[in-house]
Amino acid sequence: MSSLALQLLALLLAADPRGYDGPDAAPDVPAPEDRPDWTFSKGPVPKSMPEEPGESEAAEAAEADAAASPGAPPVELPAATDGTKVLPGDSRDIEVTTDLLGRSSRVDAHRHAGGRQVVDVDQAKAEGASGVAELLDKVPGVRAVEGASGLSTSASKLNLAVRGADPRLSEQATVLLDEVPVAPAPYGAPSMVLFPLSLFQIARVDTVRGGSSVRFGPWTSGGVFNMVSHPIPKNPTVSVFAQSDQFGDAGAAASYGGTHKGIGVYVEYAPRFGKTYREHSEFQSHGGIIKFAVPVTKRLELLSSTHLFWEKTNLPGGVDSETYAKDRFASNRPYDTFNGHREGTSLKLHWRPKAEHELQVIAFYSHTLRRVVQATNEDRNLGAAPTFLLVQPRAFDVVGIEPRYAFRVRHRGGFHDLSIGTRGVFETARIRGFRVEFPDRPGDKLEADGDARVCPRGTILPEGSPNALRCFDGRIGGYSLYLEDKIYLLDTKLVLTAGVRLELTKQSFYNVLEGLSYPRPLYGGPLPAASVWYGGDHVGLYLGYGRSFGAPSYLSGAIQPINPGEAMGRALRFIKPELADTVEAGVKLMELGGVYATVDGWYRYFNNLRDEGENAIDIIPAAHTYGAEVDLEWLPGEVWEKVDGLELNVGYAYNGSRVLRDLYTGNRMPWYPAHEVWGSASYEAPFGLRVGTKVEFVDKQYTDYANWDAPRATGEVGTMPAYTLMGAWLGYRASLPAGWRLEATVGVKNLLNEQWFTRSDDINGGILAMRPRTFYFNLGFAHEWIRGKAGEQARTSWKRGKVNRRVWTAGVRRVERWFWRTWGALM
Q: Does residue 190 have a cis peptide bond before it, meaning omega lies within 30 degrees of 0?
């Protein structure tokens, strides 16, 4: 691309620095002509049609030849409805799509009538994040804790929630991979005790704090977190990334992807191994993902994704106050371990029968087996010496199908986008608990340690069998139906949304030891939601309401009174579902002089709040939470060229809560500090040097509903004092000749070596020391095979050209960035 071409393009957009007039409705033209320039490398654009094999290669060669020629005209951008040029990677068209979160872009988040933020993984990796919890810790309204449970602080345990819900093991949240559930069992076991994804397998995370209860369920009171995997590239590409710190916590990822004769393929392997800063914290995990994209016709596309994961981890557990004072990184639990594996696959069918209509059918299956070994005693008293090992294998199988249909109805004043969908999920579970004697030495194989597939019956156990303490089989059928209508008025500046989700859940449990069956009634009901959004490309205001549903878990089925006839009496509170009503309002800014900001206020009422751990359940009949969230990001380089690459961010979150009924009436909810403040600054020089720093303050918080101010000697309950963390990093990344890319980063987390901790009341509970000062190092490279000699010549020609920057606006800057992203492989 010559410098003349870029100058002409800059002049073309100088009169209108945006290059578009707003989010107009997509034109009513027959597909696939509505977006003929789409390729797999741009990701799944819902309104786009796959190219026919061979078309993209021919177009690519022609464009490369043109770009390599001196004085070549600029490449034409696709036209918008008003004749101006728009950016395919950042389209403002309102698309008819069955992808419930759209393309998980900033535009989608801006036009969402609820708290929502899309977080890019690349920046978090530079800051040293080793897991998703670190990535999302400073998203406004999100509580992400590295160690809120006794099942280790490794990256394979996910502790996330929003707006007053308990973040422990993400029990109250919906966690998705490309909109497919990744929990062991979405209804009966939503806890992410086995999180099967490495941070390196994720491109970005769409964090939805509100306005999602119609399209997703169950368990949206803790938020919806959609992990967006890396897109399938057009050109064959290999990438490798590695990360490690001074304690030996190391991770890596290697991937290959490309589109061959129209068929997209992506394969990635991501192991993690080593130890953390705690004693007895050695771990290893191996994960992988395989994706295919097959354009059957121009209107029909098949997408498949399969992930595999295996983990083995030592559990350091919590320590008492005396041990913490002597050595906060010590462990008194040499026998505690965790291991497990998960296999999951999904198949998606996208079909556009005609313009502005789309059908998507998602089918998925998963098998999860996790096994925990913990030392305990008969009373599970943390103050007494353990007398045996409790082995708890649990296995889950899930199969589901979810068809969705979306279409547009036009009228004189605007148009309606209607979406309807249904989902059927069938789960089976095997919940086991065995009593096992201690081996001769820690790490030795356990004798007769139990199996999740079988369980001895009766009180007389076969010789050599483990002592079975809990043997439950469970089944859950979950059925849901949703209908949502979006009405666009005033040239799409006003959006009225209303919808309802119907959730029905049927459960049954069987006590294998006693030969008793516990059928459950049919739970569920309608979950209404409504919202109003008003604004444009720069400023948006919203007001919304929604109700979420939380199903009783398999653990609640295992809690039974001695007399089965009393099951609907004393145990009723344990099998009653949770309902949460939320009202929220806010203001959003985007691209307003380089400013991106959100200001949200919210109120939530919990009816029968369910707080479930590994072996216990807390039921709070009524509670409410309320708060405010502010996040401001400024990219001055979108306005002034001299500070291009500078990014500034500051945020604040307030959370108030009270228990309204029960023993703890008037107390605050645990795990949520009243105040959080954070800020960061980073700069990337034109030649690739990157430097950044961040700081965060977290206020005092409780870890139990009793609000114990004076901690117990055993350490499992008490307050978490306020703490301040600071980090800094220095890195370099650059595009090299012949399709190579390189990046390297060194940094430090907890620069001031602040001593902070969390607590756990699990079987191996106590005080959990958190990360001390940690130095880390990242190294990554990638290579893209550029197809054709003309493409390489075009790349060389582009690098020789100089850009005329006399006319410089945010719109022109986005155009140049789009050129580098889209045509960089050819130039």
A: no
Strand pairing report for 202-208 and 116-120: antiparallel
Residue 539: Cβ-neighbour burial (10 angstroms; 0-12, 13-18, 19+):
middle
Identify which of 470, 390, 447 has the alpha carbon closest to the alpha carbon of residue 150.
390
> Alpha-carbon distance 537 to 540, whole Å?
8
Residues forming beta bridges with residue 494, ordered by sequence position: 489, 534
Three-state SS for 122?
helix
Residue 483 host element (H or E): strand 467-489
The pLDDT assigned to 761 comes to 83
**Amino acid at position 802, single letter:** K
φ, ψ for residue 635, nearest 5 deg = -115, 85
pLDDT at 306: 97
Structure-block tokens of residue 628: 């405010």
Among 291, 88, 106, residue whose Cα is nearest residue 823? 88
pTM: 0.84
Cα separation, 17 vs 10, in Å, equals: 9
DSSP code, position 367: E
- SS3 of residue 59 by DSSP: helix
One-letter-per-residue 3-state SS of 749-794 = ECCCCCCCEEEECCCCCEEEECCCCEEEEEEEEEEECCCCHHHHHH
CB distance 354 to 30 below 8 Å? yes
110: helix, strand or coil: helix
Amino acid, single-letter form, for residue 162:
V
Task: Specify the DSSP element, H or E, that contains 533.
Answer: strand 516-535
- Quick check: helix, strand or coil at residue 500? strand
Residues 445, 446, 447, 451: is their CA dihedral positive or negative? negative
- The residue type found at 371 is R
Rounded to 5°, the CA angle 653-199-599 comes to 20
Alpha helices per DSSP H over 246-302: none
Q: What is the DSSP letter of 234?
A: S
What is the overall mean pLDDT for the chain? Answer: 81
Q: What is the pLDDT of residues 455-513, one digit of tens each?
A: 655 444 444 455 778 888 899 999 999 999 999 999 999 999 999 999 999 988 888 87
* 36 neighbors 29 (Cβ within 8 angstroms): no
Phi, psi of 476 (to 5 degrees): -135, 130
Cα–Cα distance measured from residue 147 to residue 144, given in angstroms and rounded to the nearest whole number? 9
pLDDT tens sequence across 451-463 = 666 665 544 444 4
Lowest-pLDDT choice from 191-200, 442-451, 557-566: 557-566
**Is the bond preceding residue 74 a cis peptide, omega within 30 degrees?**
no
> Which amino acid, residue 512?
V
Are residues 497 and 530 in contact, defined by beta-carbon separation less than 8 angstroms? yes
Q: How large is the average pLDDT for residues 581-600?
A: 95
Average pLDDT over residues 722-745: 91
Closest by Cα among 473, 571, 556, 573 to 514: 473
Count the Cβ atoms, other than its own, within 10 Å of residue 409. Answer: 12
Would you place residue 223 in the very low, low, confident or very high pLDDT band (cuts 50, 70, 90)? very high
Q: In whole angstroms, give the CA distance from residue 477 to residue 504.
A: 8
Q: How confident is the model at residue 361 (pLDDT cuts 50, 70, 90)?
A: very high
Count H helices and E strands in the chain, helices first: 10, 33
Place of tokens 């939503």: 190
Tokens of 484: 């949502």
Residue 772 has pLDDT above 80, yes or no: yes
Predicted confidence at residue 716, as pLDDT, reads 87
Distance CA 266, CA 235 (A): 11
Alpha-carbon distance of 127 to 684, in angstroms, equals 14
More confident site: 352 or 28:
352
Q: Give CA–CA dist 145/165, Å, rounded.
A: 13
| Whether the Cβ atoms of residue 173 and residue 148 lie closer than 8 Å to each other | no
Integer Cα distance of 63 and 55 in angstroms: 12
Give pLDDT, residue 490. Answer: 93
